[in-house]
Amino acid sequence: MKRIINVHEAKTNLSSLLARVEAGHEVIIARANRPIARLVPYVGPRKKRRLGEAKGLVTIKPGFDELPADFIAHFQ
């Protein structure tokens, strides 16, 4: 749920606003009733994937790319 507050209130209640953001809420900060900033939860960088990390976990069976003739007929 979004909440729009003014700059003065944001400065006064920063700790409670951060608690709301941690709980998953979004806070819009406004100056003279015009939105100027959005306070949202921080999403850190994703874990980097290593090449070959899933090696041996997937097997491809022989004939996996063969399609029945009646199925192919629908695309001709």
Q: Tell me the strand order in the biggest sheet.
A: 1-2-3
Question: Could you give a short account of the major beta sheet?
Answer: 3 strands, mixed
Fill in the CATH topology of the domain at 1-42.
Answer: YefM-like fold
User: Which descriptor suits the 3D outline?
Assistant: elongated
Number of helices: 3
> Secondary-structure element sequence?
EHHEEH
Structural class: alpha+beta
CATH-level-2 architecture of the domain at 1-42? 3-Layer(aba) Sandwich
CATH class of the domain at 1-42, named Alpha Beta
Give the helix/strand layout.
Elements lengths: L1 E5 H6 L1 H9 L3 E6 L2 E6 L29 H4 L4
Parallel strand pairs: 1-2
Antiparallel strand pairs: 2-3
Structure description:
It is a single chain. The chain has 76 residues and is an alpha+beta fold. It has a domain at 1-42: YefM-like domain (YefM-like fold), CATH 3.40.1620. 25% of the residues lie in helices and 22% in strands. It has helices spanning 7-12, 14-22, 69-72, and strands at residues 2-6, 26-31, 34-39. The longest helix is centred in the first third of the chain and has 9 residues, at 14-22. It is elongated, with a radius of gyration of 26 Å.
